[in-house]
């Protein structure tokens, strides 16, 4: 079984981004700062070898 490269919070942030939520809304829903969400999304994209947030979701 292959290990998921994403953390649970990165995965949740990507799902919310897919649903069209803004960085601020994602932060509010996950009880995180906007800076943390701004770090999670590019980190998740890198782990998925995606060139953009859109490609990651």
UniProtKB/TrEMBL annotation:
One of its GO terms (biological process) is regulation of DNA-templated transcription. It holds the Pfam family GerE. Residues 1-57 form the HTH luxR-type domain. GO terms for molecular function: DNA binding. CDD domains: LuxR_C_like (cd06170). SUPFAM superfamilies: C-terminal effector domain of the bipartite response regulators (SSF46894). Keywords: DNA-binding, Transcription, Transcription regulation. Signal peptide: none annotated. This is Transcriptional regulatory protein DesR. The lineage of its organism: Bacteria, Pseudomonadati, Pseudomonadota, Gammaproteobacteria, Alteromonadales.
């Amino acid at each position: 079984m292959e290990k998921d490269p994403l953390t649970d919070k990165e995965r949740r942030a990507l799902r919310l981004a897919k649903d069209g939520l803004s960085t601020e809304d994602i932060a509010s829903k996950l009880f995180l700062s906007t800076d943390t969400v701004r770090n999670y999304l590019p980190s998740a994209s890198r782990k998925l070898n995606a060139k953009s947030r859109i490609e990651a979701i």
